[in-house]
Amino acid sequence: MTLVKRINFDQIGGVLYQDEVQNFVIDFDNYRNYSLSVNDSIYPTLSNGLVLIKDFQLGEHSIALVKTGEKTIKKKFKYNRTAPLITNDAVVFGLLFLVLVLIFRTAEMPIFKKFYGIVPALLLCYFIPAILNSLNIISSDISNLYFVASRYLLPASLILLCLSIDIQGIKRLGGKAVIMFFAATIGIIIGGPIALYLVSLAAPEVLTGGLWRGLATVAGSWIGGGANQAAMLEVYQASDKLFSKMIIVDVVVANIFMSVLLFGTGQNKRLNKFFKADDSAIEALKTKMEAFQKSVEKVLTFKSLTYMLGIVFGLVGLAHLLSGYIAPGIEEWLESIKSSSPNAAILFTSFGSGFFWLVVLSTIFGVILSFTKARNFEGIGASKVGSLFLYILVATIGTKMNIAEMIREWNDFVYLFAIGLIWILIHALFLFVVAKIIKAPFFYVAVGSQANVGGAASAPVVASAFSPALAPVGVLLAVLGYAVGTFGAILCTILMQSISV
Q1: 63 has which bridge partners?
Q2: Which helix (DSSP H) or strand (DSSP E) does residue 380 occupy?
Q3: Is the same domain home to 56 and 139?
Q4: How far apart are CA 399 and CA 150, in angstroms?
Q5: What is the 3-state secondary structure (H, E, C) of 412-473?
Q6: Do residues 39 and 155 share a domain?
Q7: Which of 165, 277, 340, 483 could form a disulfide linkage to 472, CB 3.0–4.6 angstroms apart?
Q8: Domain of life, per the record (predicted)?
Q9: Residue 473 belongs to domain spanning
Q10: What is the pTM of this model?
């Protein structure tokens, strides 16, 4: 083990391990006129232009070069205890695929029928990789699999799931789906300030120190996704140290809640009975899609598979190309109006996100294909391939959750987790009350919630847990979440700020 490691500032990033190095000497010779800030604390410069940093704690850290009148240069890295057992992404991908095979193979066995009747297979696709990550067998910190799955497989999945979409059938689902989506949004807006107030009764210090600024980023994430979270960070300027804590709370609580929703899909009939909900329109859509699949079903050939995937990934490439032009153009426009119309620039920040346009364009391409002969690709398993891509995405999302880290840092995060858990509980209770009043099926509850809290990466996952035919509903609601996210998050933050000291 190296007691002191010298690192050039330009090379900072990724992951460092405690069993390899304990103290750091940061060399920023190229930035002699700057001061070095570590986790928002200025460190003194040694006589030789180096900075010695001792006793780093485990977790995420930010290092920045600060100079009056100049733009701050920031770097981030994570400090973990030890390197994971498996560091090769090819091996990790193979392991995750074997996990999927194991789950769906056992799901077909009569001996496990009762178990899978209670615990949905999709939940295990998420939870087993989370256990592997928690045991340090694999680590999302050094893996690019989630990026590949979310940027390449997710857009392809959206196209494949939408190309056979039944627009008229979705229309017949009625307004309850939209009502439950906005009920989920309102649940997040009111849940934040209520949770903050309730926790303050036991720990008054949560109302001081600008904690509400960090919670603003969670509100942005839970009403729309990453782009809206970035907007809230820009608006309310949470410190890097606070923001890193909020990311952990966001990921852990949101993933726990997603697990609950996936578990709920196995209790769908009981919950619908509780809500006194009529899910005939949903069942009719599922039946119609299954009938359509059978009517166009044919033998899969190499030629037809190549043709289908060629069109799909060609459109994924086009979506990336167009988003690469649209997003920077909008971002540049937003930057230009910042001084004259700062509020407008903030509210429409999500439209400057490349991922937002990637999701929107992929969805549009899929819907357009549903009006062409490409709709018949369903006959060779378009939705099945799309579902497979989604399951791979779910497995990579699972690798981002670290149960061991949550337990280890519980004392440091106990009040933050308490706020997050109470917040999401209020969100869920509000959804249940509204669903009970309007007699909405649990499908609308689950997908409306996940379209807010999880966004486009997980809303179709939850929808497809009910049926692959319903995945497009999750996609469309998630896009709506991107559009309203910043507005809702700002309202939530104003309420949280109003009760803080």
Answers
A1: 38, 75
A2: none
A3: no
A4: 13
A5: HHHHHHHHHHHHHHHHHHHHHHHHHHHCCCHHHHHHHHHHHHCHHHCHHHHHHHHCHHHHHH
A6: no
A7: 165
A8: Bacteria
A9: 89-498
A10: 0.71
